[in-house]
Structures are given as C-alpha cells and as structure tokens.
From TrEMBL, chain A:
GO biological process per UniProt: nucleolar large rRNA transcription by RNA polymerase I; regulation of ribosomal protein gene transcription by RNA polymerase II; ribosomal small subunit assembly; rRNA processing
Coiled-coil region list: 256-283
Protein name: Ribosomal RNA-processing protein 7 C-terminal domain-containing protein
GO molecular function: rRNA binding
Limits of the Ribosomal RNA-processing protein 7 C-terminal domain: 170-289
Family matches, as Pfam families: RRM_Rrp7, RRP7
Lineage start: Eukaryota, Fungi, Dikarya, Ascomycota, Saccharomycotina
Transmembrane domains' residue ranges: none
Rrp7 RRM-like N-terminal domain residues: 8-158
GO CC aspect terms: CURI complex; small-subunit processome; UTP-C complex
Native species: Eremothecium cymbalariae (strain CBS 270.75 / DBVPG 7215 / KCTC 17166 / NRRL Y-17582)
From TrEMBL, chain B:
GO biological process: nucleolar large rRNA transcription by RNA polymerase I; regulation of ribosomal protein gene transcription by RNA polymerase II; rRNA processing; tRNA export from nucleus
One annotated Gene Ontology cellular component of this protein: small-subunit processome
Localization terms from the record: Nucleus, Nucleolus
Keyword Cytoplasm on entry: no
Name the UniProt record assigns to this protein: U3 small nucleolar RNA-associated protein 22
Region (Disordered): 24-90
C-alpha cells in the first residue's frame, strides 16, 4: 500500500498512530485512518464544518480537539473547534420514536431533519479562519506521513460497564416525569387551542382532529396494514350476505356447472400433486435408504 | 422318485409335474401378466360379503360410465368452442379415474403418488434378477449331479468328514457314537421360497438374499425322528454332505469366485444353512457379484412327515431323562415344525397374492415399514426386534384377508388397495392384543373352500400368538414379549400418523430409518458387562437347556424378566441386544463360537416419563391374603424390600429409592437388580446419562444434588413468592385499576437455563418479567415518550404504596430498559421479595401497538425495516410473551422432560456462544418440536434423548424449503384416537375442546401459504431463515426475523457436526465433552475476558469442585441496593456496545450466562465474525459505516488492526488474551 493523501472523492486521508496494547501482537505499527472533507452546505448551523468519516472508538469533542490541535501545532497554526454535530457512535438516535408517533411535536420538519450516515460526524469550527487553518494543516499532515500524531482512546473502566445496572434515583425520576408531563400537557393544550381556533365549520361545530386521528377507521386500517407480521398472510374475503343467501342448486345448469367444476378441481389438484411428486423425485426424496 | 422341480405357481395351480428345469424360474415372468385384473373395493364395502367377481363386474361398468361422463365434461369445459381432441380428452378421463381412485382408496392423492414412487424406488433391477437367475439354473444343474449316499452310522459319518475341509454343523448337544439311527443323502426336491419367490423382494443397499429350499426326501426319516434332535442331526449331516460335494462341483465347473459359509437360518441355532455369495467380480457368465444377492441354501423336512400335534408349543420333545418328560420345549418344537412348512406357506401366500391384486405391494410397504424400525424375521435373542419380519407381516395379512375379527369377520378384503391393506394390518396390530388378552387363529389349507375363517380368540397365552390350526405353527414364536410390545407401540404410533389429516406423514412412516442413532431412538441405553462366563454357564442348567435350546436365548429371557418386574410401568418398552455375536462361520467349524457367543449386552428402553422417577416401588399390602405375593416380592428385591406405612394408613411392602440430580432412578434400580439376580460382578454402565445430567447447572440450593431432574420445586418457590406479591399489588388503590398481572419470565414456564435460586441476583434471569395491564382508558398520551412517562408515573405510585405498606419486607427500585430498540424511555419497576426473588414489572397499554405501527407508517422508507424490528421486539416482549408463556407452562405439565431438555439446549447454545443471538422463545420453540411433533420417534423420555432429538431435528431441517409448524398441544394419545373412533356420535365436551385446540387443516394451510409467500420474496432465506409458526404466531417470523444469516447457518452446521459425531462414535465422555466445547477456531478473532469479580456464587450455581461449606448462598439483599450492580456481568454490556458500534461489519458473540460458563464464573470470551462483504476490498463511500483503511485512491479495506486496538482499548480492564485466526 503506497501512501495515499486523498481519496478520489475529495476526502483527505488522515492517519493516526495507535497506542500499544500488550494483548495484541502486531508487527506493523497499527494506524487509524480518518477521512476528512470540507462540509459545504447552505444551512446556517452547519457553516464552518469539516465532514469526518470513520472516527475512532469513543471519540468525543475533547479527544478530537486535542489530536487536531496537535496537528495544527505541527504546522504552527491554531484552529478553534466548538462543537461535534450529529455524533451518534452507537446509533442510538437513528430513530426518534417520539417524533414519529406524536401529533403534538412538529413533524413537518421531518423532511428537513438531517440524516448523517453512521460513523460520520460534522466538526464545527468557530469561524471560517479556524476552519481554513485546520484544513490547511490537515492537507500538509496528510502529505508527510512520517511524523504521525498518536490517537489516545478514552478507555472505560469496569465500573463504567457495571454502572449500566445502576438504579434510577427515585427523586430524579419523579421530577423528570413531572417535568415532562407538564411540558406535554402544555403542548397538548396549545395544540388544542390552535386547532379550535382554526377549524370551525359552517354550523359552528368545532372539528377536533389530529394528523393521526383524522378518521379513526381509515387511519387505523392504514396503520394496521403496516403490521410486518401480516405482510405475508393472505387476506380472506368474507362472503357477502347476498352470496350467502343465493341458492346454488336451483337450476340444472348450476348443478352441472358445479359438478364440472368439482371434477376440474379434482383433476387440477391431481395434476398439482403429480407436479409436486416430480419435484420431490428430482430431489431424491423417495429413497428409504438415504 | 425323479427330480421334481417345483415352483410355487405350478403347485398352486395343481400342476405338479416334472417340468423342464427352466420352469424353476420361468413362471415368474409371466405371472404378472396372468394375474387377473380385479377391481378394488371402496371403503364402504368392507363388511359386504357378496361374491367378489360379481361385484367386480358391476363396478367395472360403473367406472366406465363415469369415464364417458367425465370425457364429455372435459371436452365441453376445457376445449370451449374447439373440436374436442380425442387424444387429450382420453388422457384426462384416465386421469380423472386415477384421481378419484387415489382420493378414495388411499389416504390422499399425494399419498398414493408417494407410494407409487417409493415402490418404484425399491424395485429389483430386472437385469440383476436375470443375472442371478442364470446362476440359480446352474446351481440346480449342479445339485442334480451330487451322488447319493446312504445308511451311514454316526462313526462312518465321522470317518467320512475326517480330514475334509467341511465339517458337520451339528447343533448342541452333538450326537454320540452310540447313536443308532442312520444318516443318508438322497437328491432333494429343489424350490425357491421366501420373498424372492413371492416377488415381494425389494432392493436393499446391503444386498438381498434368495432362499433356496432343498427338501430332504421323506424316506430319510422315521416317524419318531422329531424327538431328541434326531431329525436335526440327520439334516446337519445332509447339509454337510451336500456342501462338501457342492464345493467340489463348483470348482469343477469353474465357479471359484463363489464363497461358501455356514450360518443359521433366522439366527436359529437349530437350523444351520449354507450361504453362497460372490466374493469378487469375474468374467464368468454366472458371476452375480454386482447384483449383491446372496443365496441361502435351506435344508427342509418334507411337510407332514411328523405328526404336528406332537410338536405343539406345550409339548416336550427332548427326552433324556424319563422323569423329565413334561418341560415344554417350544423353541425346539417350532424349529422342527417350521422347517417343514417353508414350502407350504409360500403356496399359501401365493394363493392370497393371486386373489388380491395389491397384496405384493402391501407386503413391500410392510417390509419397508418394519425394516426402518429394525424389525426382521430372526430369532428374538439375536435381535431384540426380531421375530416379526416380512414373512410374518405377509402371513398376518393373509390371515386377515380370511377373517380375523372376533366373530371371524373379515378385517381385510381382497379388493383393498395396498394402502388399505397396510393400514388395516397396522390397525390390527395396534388395537388387538395377541399376547395376554387373546390370540389370532387361522387356517392355511391350500384349498380355500375347506378353510374356516380366521378368528380372534379372547384367550391369551402370555406369549405373542398367531396360531395356524393347519400346520400347528405359532407364526409369532420367534418374537419376544418385549419385541411384541415394541411392535404394538410402533403400530399404534403409525396408526396415529396414518390418521393425521393435517400433516403429510409419508416420509415419517416409510422413509426414515429409525435405528440409525440408537440414542435418538431409545430414551436410555445401558451397557451391561457380565465378566464371569463360568458363573453364567452354571445357571444354564438342564431344564433351561431343554427349554431355551441356546444359552443366549436363556440369558436374554432372564434379563428381560428381571427388568420387567423391576421397572414395571416406569418404562414403556425395553429391548435387549447381544453385542459381539458371531453369526456366520466357516465350513470347517461346527458352530460360530464357543459356549458364549457374545461379549456384552446392551439394554435400551423407552421410558414412561410420568412414572419413571417415582420414589417408591410398591409391592403387595401387608396382609395374610397376599402372603405369597409378599414372599415373592421380598425374594425378588432382597434387602431393599421394606414395610412402609403410607399417608392413607395402608401398610405395604415396598422399596424406597434415592433421588439424584446426576442419574435417573431407573439406573439405580437396574444396577441393584442386575447385581442381585445376574451376577455380583455385573457392571451396568450409564456414563453418558450421568454426564448429560451433570451438564445442567446445579442450583446452589440445599439438597440439590439429591433432587431429581424432573423436580420443579425451585420454580414453584419462585411462583409462590410471585403469588404473594400478586395479591399485594392487586389490592393497591390506583387511579386506574389493574386489569391483569401476567408473569412472562422464563422461570414461570420452567425454561430458564439455571434454576431460580433466592438472592442469586447476578444470574441474568434473576429478574423475572411481569406485564401489568390497567383497565382501558382513553387518557393515555398519544405519543410514545409521554406514554412511557405516564406508565412510569403509575409504576412510581405502585412503588410508593408497596414501600409504605410493605416496606419492611419488600424492596423496590427502578431501572432503564433497553429491550425495545430506540425506545429509550422505558422504565421498569423491580421488586425484590422477602423470599429472595426479583420481579421486573413493565406496563402494557392498549395504545402501545398503535404507536409502534404509526411510527412505521410515518417513517422514511429506509428506516422502515428498523421500525419493523422495533415493532416485532415490542410484540414479542409485551404481547406474544403472554401467550407463549401460558402455552409453554401448560404444555410442560404434559411433558416432564421438556423443562430439562430446554435448559440443556439453552446451555448448549450458550456454550457455543449462540444464545445471545436468539430470543428465549425461539430457542424454546425449537426445543419443543420433538415433544409436540415426535413422529416417527416417540416423545422423549430422558434428558439426553430429548436433547439429541432437538439436535437431530436441527441438523435435518432444510429451512429454505420447510417451515416449522408447531401444534403446541399435547399430541394425541393412542387411547384418544380409539375413543373418538368408537363412539363418534357422543363426543364428550373434553374431546370437543381438544379438537378445537388442535391446529386444523385450514389453519395449517394458511400458515403454509404464509411461508410460501415469504419464500417467494426471499427464496434463499437471506432475510428470514427459521420460519417457526404456531397458533400463537401464524406469521412464523416473530422471533426469527432478525437472526443474522451466518448465525442461523452456524446453528445448522453445529447440529450436523454434533449428530455426525454421535452417529460415528456413539456417546461417551469424549464425545459429550466435544459436543459442549465451543469451536473458537471458526471465528475470525477471539477475545478472552476475565472479570475482577466472580459471579458463580451470586448466580446461584453450585460449583462441581468447590467446598460446600464455603458456598453458603447469601440470605439477604445488600442494604444499599446500588451494591447489586457490583456483582453484575460487565462483559455482556461490552458485547452489546461492540455489536452496536460494528453492527454493519462484524458479529460479536459471547456467553450470556458468565456465572455458569466457567469454574469461578469470572471468565468470558468474545468472538468476532467479519461479515463476508468486508473480507474483500471495497469502494470507498462516506456512508459505508465501518473502520477502513485506504488501499488506493478509490478502494479501501477493513482496518482489522485498528478495530482490534479499539476492542482492546474498550475492554482494557477485562481483556486478557487476543487471538486472531
């Protein structure tokens, strides 16, 4: 593998040395590679950002700051990093169930919501100058791979794993619920007022509908059709009352038709079975000594 | 008398003449053409006694009518507006006839077609038959050349064979030189007998044998020769003389490639025969090596030469001592009598075959059915399932064609189809007792007009009996009582299968070889070693010799009797086999072995799980009335017998056994009685049973090592504790009243891997899930986050009240729950009870489901699969779990071994690091399969049997093409079936209820169609591998939708390897250890972990080596409940986060139950499997979501080094070793 500075798609390849661990035997010094590109977007919030692909494990603002500052230092420059945007290493926030299920939270901006791929992040700088400084430093750094910066992992302790089993403080929980329910009620109140003020029909009746409860039945059906468990099941259409009541053997032709149909069905089934047997035979399913 | 060559057909037709020698074989070829094409009876005709031929004619014309009708119908219907094509409609009409016939005469269309295919498969190859017949002609010619030899005394015979290769295969006892009678050889009457002659022989991969009968001329015998082995010795000399000359003549004729050996006909030591086989391929036209046939030359006695009445089973025919003329000699009598009836029975069967078109086919079906189950015609001592083979099946069928009912009514009719004949015979075997309650009597006179009908007589002889009044032979003489009960069990099971209208049972009935792996076929297998041969021989006294004729038969009978008395209803059936028996012996030897022809004994049994673990063996009650029985009881049980008073006040003789967690009670009983009755040195080894028992984690409870495997007390204690809490919670005053409190944790259905132990809070199953439902309310928030908060508010209220009112006993805390992905706000209330158990309460509302469905419908398309996963997880955890728990709990009451088998299977999965990838429900559903759908085997009756059956099922399950459809109710007992069939009109409520609970055809078909539609979209099973459906989940994907493909295939592969191992090497310490050793080399890398705290003790598991007094289980929870987390498994969190971080590229696995997986419970291992896509270079993309390094400007590859460093850093304090493969 020769030295690669930049991917074809415009990403700089930023290598880092990795610390040594006794349990690992590696002959070559191990490296981590980040892929960095300037982020170009009209959204105000995302101005002055670098788009980074492949962050090391458990990176946070501090660890990135320190290693990027190290790089900047090498080239006698300074860059001020302010924020890490859309950082969700374990994919916990991939889906926001609340937004997807709520009437009250504004779901209109669903489309505007940013979806950054997993294992990527936006690194926000204070201003354009900082961004440019860092960008230039990274370009030079990727040029001369000999003096590499070492990446320091943030290492969790055993108790940080067992802490997952810790209990929720009851008072905190109470407060949290209280706070949340209050907010929710407010939102509900607000939404109701809004709705009431807008939809008053000709007769003076107020129509109270939410997006998800417009017409309960149709919505429910639409939602229930989403059940992944029923995806493959066939829908059975119940016979209508008219069908149920009609006599089926009144005319002679009906009897004859029915007989014909029965025979045809029998024959069809027989043919199907023969086909099935053929397939089974080709799969050698009839060998009693297999 | 000239050489009379006969073939059965000639004789039957009354043409008994000296036909040309080609007639020996000839008729075989035109027989098929000659057979009258008789029409078949329809089921309704069973009791009709009308003249067969008349009926045939009527039906013939009837069928013709429908023929033309349907012709027209098809012509009108299918070729609308077209000129009907003659050819086409003709074919259709024929098809219609076939179709209607198949539907009415067979179980179903498909069943008939399957039978046809099967018969085609096992047909003998015509070329092979021609080849072997060529040799048979030659053999006939050679036999004619053997010179006659006459009137020799015993000494002359000895002299003749002295120095010759061939020796005389005299049976024991050998005649002495004082023998008065003379030995001779006269040219025999040669004929073919057996299935080859009847043309019901089938292709068998190990080769089939052809029986050639040489009937000794009548003049060689005297009237009294049936006594004292005389006729048998004459026959032995006859055979030896024949063999001697045959071998010379064969050499002379250039047939050196033939190999001659002695063996016993059906392993009867009184009937030595000669086998001729081809040792090698050669250019000779008579070489039949390729056909794999072998030829048995059987020497027979002419029919009717002795008075058959004197050879009845209760007569004595071995008289040495004048005083001892009363001991019956049934085996000897049968042997003498049966060797004169070979020819007779062939004719009898041939006559039936001629009358009943489907007879041969039914014979073939019966033969296959029997051989798949291990039954054959040999003597029961040599094969525990011997004594009922092809011949006996055919003879029974023939008898039933001539009656068989209690009033002599016909059980089978000549017009039946092969399926009907087979089913009728099986039904007869299943329902009529031919041993203790009655027997079947029939006549085999060849002139059918004088034959009275066969009749079932309500008088049992305690030996299986189908008695032929004509020949005085009991057809079932060779089968043992045990073998017969096994036959009956199999017949009953097969009848159930044949009555199954929902599932296709064809392959279970005919295609599966059951005895491939004996541990799968039998519940318990023991090896019995009897080291002192002399001691054994000393028990084989004169009377025994007379009765049993062979030492082996005597021993098998003795062991069987001891086991039967000792185990009684603890077992359903037992079979005892001799190991190391020699069956063939060279011509130079008189017999195959010395005094004892076996090395050890194998005892295999089917257990009755409801009775097997009884603590007490009850004997007669202690009163004068039963004094004789009591004496017998004491005599049998020796010092184990004792007097006990029972709760109801009765005093009884009984034996008390001790329970053990490591072996079944049956083992200790057997061990005791074998030493008591056979030999002090008898060694009964049941190592593998013990080994399997010890694999289950032993709970750290008082007396746990003295508790039976089937004891569920530890689970009951947990349930009791829950019931107390249940009462408290139900009484709480809450804003919404509680509708239901549903326990759904695995311990409630007895399936948690380790048994519940108080205060064992490190066990991952310690907190048992409970679902709480409130009465319906429209006020639940219409938004998931707030809904969860509202639920938490209710739980807070419960906690508050429980603590206020019962705070001295109960303890509560809250924790976050991450069981539903992306729902990060679920809070559970965990309540610790004073008895030391923990329950985790979560709330289910009627709004939840709609919420999750709404999320799916509102989400962007690319998120939908993730949300579907969330929905499935929710359904499984909150809704289906209720049904699943209820069903499994209910069903485990019917299957005592279900709970231990599931627990062992979970343990096996955890050993192989797979448990973390499957939901508990999925695992339980797989493990329940051999219980609810056991066919063609029986419901498991031991731990190892159930476990192996689960593995066997997994190894054979082709999930790409077959769904697993489970009917989660107790399978029908045979009694249930007979009840309903007897009184179909008065179906009681219980039966009705049962009927409604069972999966019906419609439901089955709809599940099947769900599967078909699923596979239509995903034919290779890349998304869903295991389709496991039941009434609880007809979709079949609830628990298996998100099992990773590599994990599913790994499970199948592991099961295959395991079953192969057991099949090849059997079960012993090494193989069982191997079964439970993880194959870490199969993974891409392995990380070994060690946790600073040992969890074994706090997981409630007793270590096998630890000191007991150091292992006192804690008796309370820590004061500060936050201390609980210190004794929790950190590795499971590590694996969880690794899987989240690398979900796209690597699959991580580890032991779920760290406390149970190592000696101290502080070691774990993480393995990584890199997904195949990432093993090759990839094009760089910003959204590729994995740790990569560049190769060139466009491509990248997985940066394994960096990943390993990340893992090492992540688990720095836990990782002790890192291996890459």
């Amino acid at each position: 593998m020769g030295h690669i500075e930049m991917m074809k798609s415009g990403f700089f390849v930023i290598p880092f040395k990795l610390p040594k661990y006794d349990v690992l035997k590696s002959d070559k010094p191990p490296m981590h590679y980040m892929f960095v590109k300037k982020h170009q977007n009209k959204i105000q919030q995302e101005a002055n950002c670098l788009f980074i692909v492949n962050l090391p494990l458990l990176s946070n603002l501090n660890s990135i700051k320190s290693s990027f500052n190290n790089i900047c230092e090498k080239f006698n420059t300074v860059a001020h990093i302010t924020e890490l945007l859309y950082h969700d290493e374990f994919g916990l926030q991939d889906v926001d169930l609340s937004v997807l299920t709520s009437d009250l939270l504004d779901t209109n901006d669903l489309k505007d919501k940013r979806y950054t791929p997993n294992n990527t992040v936006l690194l926000k700088f204070l201003d354009e100058a900082s961004l440019d400084n860092c960008w230039n430093a990274l370009r030079k750094y990727s040029h001369m791979p000999k003096e590499l910066v070492q990446w320091e992992y943030s290492i969790p302790s055993v108790s940080s794993f067992t802490n997952f089993y810790k209990h929720i403080e009851i008072n905190w929980l109470k407060e949290n619920i209280h706070k949340h329910m209050k907010l929710f009620e407010e939102r509900e109140q607000q939404a109701q007022e809004q709705v009431q003020s807008t939809i008053v029909d000709d007769d003076g009746f107020t129509l109270v509908v939410g997006k998800n409860t417009k017409s309960l039945n149709s919505i429910r059906r639409k939602i229930l059709n989403r059940n992944p468990l029923l995806k493959h099941s066939q829908k059975v259409i119940a016979p209508s009352i008219v069908d149920k009541k009609a006599k089926k053997d009144f005319y002679r032709f009906q009897v004859r038709e029915r007989k014909k149909q029965e025979i045809n069905e029998l024959l069809k089934k027989f043919k199907e079975d023969q086909e099935r047997i053929k397939i089974m035979k080709s799969q050698r399913k009839f060998n009693p000594y297999a | 008398m000239g050489p009379a060559k006969r073939y059965a057909s000639d004789v039957v037709d009354g043409v008994e003449s000296a036909v040309s020698k080609k007639a020996l074989i000839g008729p075989k070829f035109d027989a098929r053409g000659q057979e009258e094409g008789s029409m078949r009876h329809y089921p309704g005709d069973v009791d009709g006694g009308t003249n067969d031929s008349d009926m045939e004619r009527e039906e013939d014309s009837g069928v013709d009518d429908t023929d033309t009708d349907s012709d027209d119908a098809i012509a009108r219907g299918d070729n609308k507006g077209q000129k009907p094509q003659y050819e086409k409609s003709r074919v259709s009409a024929q098809d219609i006839q076939l179709a209607t016939e198949a539907a009415e005469l067979f179980k179903s269309n498909i069943f008939k077609l399957q039978i046809d295919e099967l018969l085609q498969q096992v047909k003998l190859q015509d070329l092979h038959v021609l080849t072997v017949e060529k040799f048979l002609h030659k053999l006939y010619d050679i036999i004619q050349e053997i010179p006659e030899w006459g009137e020799k005394s015993f000494d002359e015979v000895e002299l003749f064979f002295k120095g010759k290769v061939v020796s005389v295969p005299f049976c024991d006892p050998k005649p002495s030189s004082s023998t008065q009678y003379k030995f001779s050889y006269r040219t025999p009457d040669v004929s073919l007998i057996g299935s080859f002659a009847l043309k019901s022989a089938i292709y068998q991969p190990q080769g089939s044998s052809i029986d050639v009968l040489l009937t000794m001329p009548e003049e060689l015998f005297e009237k009294k020769d049936f006594l004292n082995f005389r006729c048998l010795h004459k026959r032995s000399v006859y055979l030896a003389y024949f063999t001697h000359h045959l071998s010379i003549l064969l050499r002379k004729n250039g047939l050196d490639f033939l190999h001659l050996e002695y063996t016993y006909f059906n392993n009867d030591p009184l009937q030595p025969i000669l086998t001729i086989s081809c040792g090698e391929q050669s250019a000779s036209e008579f070489n039949f090596y390729k056909t794999r046939f072998s030829i048995n030359v059987v020497v027979g006695i002419p029919y009717g030469v002795f008075d058959s009445k004197k050879l009845l089973p209760n007569k004595n025919c071995i008289r040495v001592d004048k005083d001892n003329n009363t001991t019956p000699t049934p085996f000897y009598n049968f042997s003498v009598l049966s060797c004169s009836t070979h020819d007779h029975y062939l004719k009898y069967l041939y006559r039936e075959k001629k009358q009943s078109e489907a007879f041969t086919e039914a014979c073939v079906l019966g033969r296959l059915w029997l051989s798949q189950r291990g039954f054959d015609s040999s003597m029961s001592y040599s094969n525990s399932l011997g004594g009922f083979g092809h011949f006996e099946f055919a003879a029974l069928m023939a008898a039933l064609l001539n009656g068989g009912g209690v009033n002599g009514n016909k059980i089978l009719l000549h017009g039946f189809s092969s399926y009907q004949l087979f089913r009728g015979t099986i039904k007869y075997l299943a329902t009529m007792d031919l041993c203790s309650q009655g027997h079947l009597q029939f006549h085999s006179d060849l002139d059918s007009s004088v034959n009275p009908p066969s009749k079932y007589m309500a008088e049992g002889f305690e030996v299986p009996t189908i008695f032929d009044k004509t020949t005085k032979v009991n057809i079932l003489s060779k089968i043992s009582v045990n073998g017969y009960s096994m036959l009956k069990l199999y017949s009953q099971e097969t009848l159930l299968m044949l009555s199954d209208v929902v599932k296709d049972q064809f392959s279970n009935i005919f295609l599966t070889k059951l005895d491939k792996v004996q541990q799968v076929n039998y519940d318990l297998c023991y090896d019995l070693e009897l080291p002192t041969g002399r001691e054994l021989l000393s028990k084989f006294g004169f009377l025994e010799k007379v009765r049993f004729t062979s030492f082996e038969a005597f021993w098998i009978n003795k062991i069987a009797n001891v086991i039967k008395i000792a185990l009684a209803d603890r077992i359903k059936a037992v079979s005892i086999d001799l190991v190391g028996q020699r069956k063939v012996f060279p011509l130079s030897k008189r017999k195959p072995a010395g005094a004892i022809n076996f090395t050890s004994i194998k005892i295999k049994m089917l257990v009755n799980p409801m009775e097997s673990e009884k603590l007490v063996t009850k004997g007669p009650s202690n009163s004068d009335e039963f004094a004789a029985e009591a004496a017998q009881f004491k005599n049998f049980w020796g010092k184990k017998a004792s007097l006990r008073r029972f709760k109801d006040g009765s005093i009884m003789h009984c034996c008390l056994w001790s329970m053990s967690s490591s072996e079944p009670v049956i083992t200790s009983i057997l061990d005791y009685v074998m030493k008591q009755h056979l030999s002090e040195d008898a060694v009964l080894s049941a190592q593998h049973t013990r080994k399997f028992h010890n694999l289950l984690p032993l709970p750290n409870l008082p007396g746990s090592s003295k508790t039976s495997l089937l004891n569920l007390t530890s689970f009951q204690n947990l349930k009791k504790s829950f019931d107390n809490l249940y009462r408290i919670i139900f009484q709480l005053k809450l804003p919404l009243s509680i509708k239901s409190i549903l326990p759904v944790g695995s311990a409630f259905r007895y399936t948690s891997m380790s048994q519940p132990v108080p205060y064992a809070y490190s066990n991952p199953d310690f907190l048992q899930d409970v679902i709480l439902e409130f009465e319906t309310s429209p006020k639940w928030p219409d938004e998931i986050l707030s809904l969860e908060k509202a639920k938490a508010a209710f739980l807070l209220k419960i906690q508050d009240q429980v603590m206020t009112n019962h705070g001295d006993q109960y303890n509560c805390y809250f924790s976050n729950d991450d069981s539903i992905p992306y729902n990060l706000d679920i809070v559970t209330l965990n309540i610790l009870t004073p008895e030391g158990y923990g329950f985790k309460f979560r709330v289910l509302t009627e709004r939840d489901e709609v919420m999750y469905l709404r999320a799916i419908s509102n989400a962007r398309n690319e998120l939908k699969p993730e949300l579907e996963r969330t929905f499935l997880k929710f359904t499984a955890k909150y809704q289906a779990s209720i049904r699943h728990s209820r069903t499994m709990e209910l069903i485990s009451h019917s299957f005592p071994f279900l709970s231990p088998v599931i627990r062992l299977f979970k343990k096996w999965l955890d050993v192989h690091l797979l448990m973390g990838h499957f939901s508990e429900e999925l695992v339980e559903l797989i493990a329940v399969k051999p219980f609810v759908d056991p066919y063609p085997y029986f419901v498991p009756g031991s731990l190892e049997n159930g476990f192996l059956k689960v593995l066997k099922f997994l190894s054979e399950w082709n999930w790409k093409e077959e769904p697993l459809i489970l009917d989660l109710v107790r399978p029908e007992d045979f009694e249930d079936l007979t009840e309903t069939s007897l009184g179909a009109t008065d179906l009681d409520s219980r039966t009705m209820k049962k009927l409604s609970e069972r999966l019906n055809l419609q439901q089955y078909k709809s599940i099947q169609s769900n599967f078909n539609s699923l596979r239509h979209e995903d034919p290779q099973g890349l998304n869903v591998q295991f389709f496991i459906a039941s009434k609880n989940d007809p979709s079949g994907i609830l628990y298996s939708r998100f099992v990773p493909l590599p994990i599913a295939t790994r499970l199948t592969a592991l099961a295959k390897v395991a079953i192969n191992l057991v099949q090849l090497h059997g079960l012993n310490k090494q193989t069982i250890d191997l079964l439970f050793t993880p194959a870490l080399k199969d993974y891409d890398f392995v990380v070994k972990l060690k946790s600073p705290t040992s969890l074994r003790l706090s997981s409630g598991i007793l270590s096998s080596t630890g000191f007991k007094n150091l292992e006192n289980q804690p008796t309370k929870f820590p004061e500060d409940l936050n201390e609980l987390s210190e004794k929790m498994d950190p590795t499971c969190q590590l694996v969880k986060y690794l899987n989240m971080k690398y979900k796209n590229s690597i699959i991580f696995s580890s032991h779920v139950n760290m406390g149970a997986s190592s000696q101290k419970g502080d070691e774990n291992v993480i393995t990584g499997l890199i997904r195949p896509v990432f093993k090759a270079p990839l094009k760089f993309k910003a959204n590729m979501d994995c740790n990569v390094k560049p190769i060139d400007k466009e491509t990248v590859e997985l940066n394994k080094d960096a990943i390993f460093h990340e893992i090492a850093a992540f688990g720095k304090e836990l990782v002790v070793q890192f291996e890459t493969n």
